[in-house]
Amino acid sequence: MADQPTNNAQNARPQGAGRNNGPRQRRDQAPAEPKQFEELVINIDRVSRVVKGGRRFRFKALVVVGDHKMKIGVGVAKGADVQAAIAKATDVAKKNMITIPVINETIPHESEVKFSGARVLLKPAAPGTGIIAGGVVRSIIGMTGIRNLLSKSLNSTNKVNIAYATIEALRSLVPRDEWTTTKNQASGKKPIAAAVKAVEETK
Question: Which CATH architecture group holds 38-177?
């Protein structure tokens, strides 16, 4: 008889009140909408400015924004704290986004750009190569739809200059259908070498 109250108490326990029955205890929450662009903080520096009362310290953030497809942007901004600097840099990056041509998960042709003291070289790669890059260049390329790439960063090691040089190199890419040789072939025009050969054969 002593065990009867205990059994009744166990039987009276409502279902779903156990530790493992979590779904009944959770509140109904709407699923979060996926972000269109992903943000990545590349570097944060503390900068100072000398004023009358001493030094005023602020933070400078370098942020890259991309959609892992064809749009990419880089922004640099300063703020009183880290969060403010990141937010401002993200806004700058979104306002200055570019669209890059991607062919078979790589770039259409080689590109080399010099920005300030930094020089960045980008070259297309065969499928399965991966992204052969380091530091800032790898962070930026990883936010695009490019999966195979060869790159080299020369001269300056300033991260801001390297970031802008990489963006300019991506901006200078020309889609394959806009190449001069491709247009000539599409319109039926013979390349120069073929035209010269045809003239020599007629002699």
Answer: 2-Layer Sandwich (3.30)
Q: How many CB atoms lie within 10 A of CB 156?
A: 16
Q: In a 10 Å sphere around its CB, with 0-12 CB exposed, 13-18 middle and 19+ buried, how is residue 133 labelled? A: buried
> Do the beta carbons of residue 67 and residue 36 sit within 8 Å?
yes
Q: What are phi and psi of 91, to 5 degrees?
A: -65, -40
Amino acid at 200: E
Distance separating alpha carbons of residues 144 and 72, to the nearest angstrom: 7
List the structure tokens of 40. 């990545």
Question: What predicted TM-score, i.e. pTM, was given to this entire model?
Answer: 0.70
- Condensed to tens digits (0 to 9), the pLDDT of residues 6-36 reads 555 455 555 555 555 545 545 555 455 567 8
Domain boundaries, the chain: 38-177
Q: Which residues in 35-69 are b (16+ Cβ under 10 Å) and which e?
A: eebebeebeeeeeeeeeeeeeeeebbbbbbbbbee
| Distance from C-alpha of 86 to C-alpha of 40, rounded to nearest angstrom | 10
Amino acid at 69: K
Q: Which residues pair with 99 in a beta bridge?
A: 71
> 110-149 pLDDT, tens per residue?
999 999 899 999 999 999 999 999 889 999 999 998 999 9
Q: Strands, DSSP E only, in the chain?
A: 38-51, 54-66, 71-79, 98-99, 111-115, 118-124, 131-132, 149-155
